[in-house]
Amino acid sequence: EVQLVESGGGLVQAGGSLRLSCAASGFTFDDYAIGWFRQAPGKERERVSCITSADYSTYYADSVKGRFTISEDNAKNTVYLWMNSLKPEDTAVYYCAALRLAPWESATAQAMEFRRVDHWGQGTQVTVSS
Questions:
Q1: Are 46 and 39 in contact (CB under 8 A)?
Q2: How far, in Å, CA of 49 to CA of 28, rounded?
Q3: What distances in angstroms separate CA 60 from CA 65, 68, 116, one per listed residue?
Q4: Cβ neighbours of residue 94 under 8 Å, at least 6 residues apart?
Q5: In DSSP terms, which residues pair with 78 in a beta bridge?
Q6: What are phi and psi for residue 88, nearest 5 degrees?
């Protein structure tokens, strides 16, 4: 059974940092790329970042570029999202997802289209206070 379990969310002041974890089971990162999405209250779910195992390329949305870093630990089958310089507008539920890409595909915005998602995690709340 494929499972994605997020952890690491919480309440932090603006300018602070958090590290989110996405622990995968039932598959390996050879099968899927992993992406992070977020959804704020009253807003649509949006892409944040993704990483591929094929070439370890990464993608970041403009809103988080330079502040967030995605990384992968194959030994632990876990993907991390390091979030620095957090802003109140980063407040959202963060979801990790298994993305089905072609073997040659790199991490791009197109790779994070919702139709590419085969599996979602349950989400973890991140709240940034001003």
A1: yes
A2: 19
A3: 6, 8, 17
A4: 6, 9, 20, 36, 37, 38, 48, 81, 123, 124, 125, 126
A5: 23, 73
A6: -55, -30
Q: Give the mean pLDDT of 53-76.
A: 94
pLDDT tens-digit series, residues 14-49:
999 999 999 999 988 888 999 999 999 999 999 999
Determine contact, residues 51/13, Cβ cutoff 8 Å.
no
Name every residue whose Cβ is closer than 8 Å to that of residue 20 and which is 6 or more positions away in sequence: 6, 7, 8, 9, 36, 80, 81, 83, 94, 96, 124, 126
User: How far are the Cα atoms of 19, 84, 125, 130 from residue 12, in angstroms, in the given order?
Assistant: 11, 11, 11, 9
What is the SS3 assignment for 111? helix
100-117 pLDDT per residue, tens: 999 889 999 999 999 999
